[in-house]
From TrEMBL:
Boundaries of every Exocyst complex component EXOC6/Sec15 N-terminal domain copy: 59-227
GO cellular component, as recorded: cytosol; exocyst; membrane
Chain's role: Component of the exocyst complex involved in the docking of exocytic vesicles with fusion sites on the plasma membrane during regulated or polarized secretion. Involved in polarized cell growth and organ morphogenesis. During cytokinesis, involved in cell plate initiation, cell plate maturation and formation of new primary cell wall.
Residue spans of biased composition, Basic residues class: 1-10
Subcellular location per the Swiss-Prot or TrEMBL entry: Cytoplasm, Cytosol
The name this protein goes by in its record: Exocyst complex component
Family statement: Belongs to the SEC15 family.
Organism: Hibiscus syriacus
Matches recorded under InterPro entries: EXOC6/Sec15 (IPR007225), EXOC6/Sec15_C (IPR046361), EXOC6/Sec15_C_dom1 (IPR042045), EXOC6_Sec15_N (IPR048359), EXOC6PINT-1/Sec15/Tip20_C_dom2 (IPR042044)
Keyword terms of this UniProt record: Cytoplasm, Exocytosis, Transport
Main localization of the protein described in the UniProt heading: cytoplasm
One GO BP: pollen tube growth
Superkingdom of the source species: Eukaryota
Amino acid sequence: MQSTMSRRKVAPGAADAAESGEKQEQLLLSSAICNGEDLGPFVRKAFASGRPETLLHNLRHFSRSKESEIEEVCKAHYQDFILAVDDLRSLLSDVDSLKSSLYDSNSRLQSVAGPLLSSLDSFVEAQNVSKNVDFALQSVSSCIKLMGLCSRANHHLSNCSFYMALKCLDSIENEFQDKTPSSTLKRMLESKIPEIRSHIERKTSKEFGDWLVEIRVVSRNLGQLAIGQASAARQREEDLRIKQRQAEEQSRLSLRDCVYALEEEVDDEGGFGGDENDGYNYGNNGFLGFDLTPLYRAYHIHQTLGLEDRFKQYYFENRKLQLTSDFQVSSMTPFLESHQTFFAQIAGFFIVEDRVFRTGGGLISKMEVENLWETAVSKMCAVLEDQFSRMQTANHLLLIKDYVSLLGVTLRRYGYAVGALLDVLSKHRDKYHELLLSDCRKQIAEALAADKFEQMLMKKEYEYSMNVLSFQIQTSDIVPAFPYVAPFSSTVPDCCRIVRSFIEDSVSFMSHGGHFDFYDVVKKYLDRLLSEVLDGALLKLISSSVHGASQAMQVAANMAVLEHACDFFFRHAAQLSGIPLRMTERGRRQFPLSKACIAAEEILSGTLKTKVDGFMTLIENVNWMTDEPSQGGNEYVNEVLIYLETLVSTAQQILPPQVLKRVLQDVLSHISDKIVDTLLGDLVKRFNVNAIIGIDVDIRLLESFADNLAPQFSEGDANQLKNALAESRQLINLLLSSHPENFLNPVIRERNYNSLDYRKVVTISEKLRDPSDRLFGTFGSRGAKQNPKKKSLDALIKRLRDVS
């Protein structure tokens, strides 16, 4: 208080403000009390500010202010109070009488209501008992239903009907668990329901795990079956193409009546592409053993358990791991032996995944399947690249390529993109053909090495069909009598079989690989096989192994047959490639074995020339200054003619006319050259007209030999044979001419002496001696006139020397 007073003294303005605040609080407190409001805020504020005395002071002040008001009210109504008290006193007697009557009435009521109250108590008690009994009945009924559901759930669990068991658990949870009157049952349900759900999840997960193990074996069998059906379908297509090619060939070769029939194509049993009979089974195992029931059951159970997303992830991860393990290539087993299992496993995997995607109700998404497929394609491409790079046998590469192409056909039916796999196959096209060329090179070398240069003997018709008709190298459409001696040796059909096998392998590799127009590729490698491999092997054979005229003649005959076979090779390649024959026949190609053919004819001609040279040495026995001309030909020409006639009789049986014509033309040209060279050489120092007449007879015999071959050749070919003797014939004609100086006339020389070299004419003409030039002949004919022919010949020699 002292401090407050001191503050008031020091700051009178602050004291006034405090007094006005107290007055305001008193007014607010008075207003709240008058209005009947709550005084709690005022009390809390007083204690919060630490001044409860102020609140008490205000309350006392309010009470004192109200006491005076009460006194004034009492003073104002004092008379009324007295009157009221009098009225109350007058009512006391009435109250007493009323009280006695109420007492009597109560006594009578008690006497009457006593039995009723006891009955009411009994009724209330009975009603409570009835309620308790009803509640008990309801509880028992609820427990009975609960136990029934529990029993049903146990029955479903024992029968592995997990979905029905879960539905029972859901019913128990929704309808009974919170409403169960038995705390024991409630505790039991709270503990057992999670355990049952966990048990169901474990059981379904175990079944799903067993299915994952089983589906790997099923996938492999499924992939093998699917690829096998694709192979069967491809074989049926090939058979149909073969029939079509045969019909086209018949229609091309003849106009025979063709029988046409419609064939009903039977679909594959249990085809894989449909939705109904597609080999898939959703319940029990079908004939493929393809059962998705455990998978869908596990998926449905996890959906019911609210674990759908977790099961999807679990399924995808496990299948991805399985696919990764399927990619493992065993290093202990050659890939050629394991490739079918490897690719069949992957094919079966994606056939299963396609079915799961289409029927699994969202178990796996399209994007996930595509991601798995992309992973598989990249891995298969890597495996193929690695294995192809190691392979050194064309047949092995072809086997794997065929199976991969069947894999592509199979999975393309399910919508999978297989372009990358086919690109890998196309990428190794060149390597395959190089390996194939290498194999054919070895086979051709072995076939040629085994050739005995003897005509092939065929005893049965099937041998003729296998070795001749199958390659269209027959010379006539009429089947010959058997035994039949072919004009070629055994190496021809052997080489034809090798080339045909090359064509078929090449077409097999190129077909079913996503390329439809591959004839140009097959033709390119066929050209290489013929022009590089076969032609080179034949050239080597001709240069190293051919000895004697008979062997050379047989090789030349073989080459002529191979020329016809080459046309068949290109037609066969076109047919297998699906190219119309008219397109291949339209663009005729150069004979690819031309080098070997030329070499064969050259070695035959060379051999014959060597043999002829042996007979031509007899020309040394000719009497060049004979008095009488030879009438029957000189000895050498008779021997040559005997040899040539024997040769022709043998060659006609195996050599084609054109080949025989070219060889004889070369031999006759060689004989002509030998005659001219003999006259030109040092062996003949001089000769007379009688000797030239004898040579003229020799040439006429040779020309007669050529004329006798006219029935076997065309007229033009017979003339070409005679033209082979042109140089010797023109030389003899010039020497026997009565006007040799006509050689100087360009027109006459071009017409009659175009094959003569004027230098040879000079040399040979100088050796010609007239009979008058004999020793001592000038004494008897000193005054005689000079022979005009001799004069003309001397003029010719002089003019030709001047020119030279």
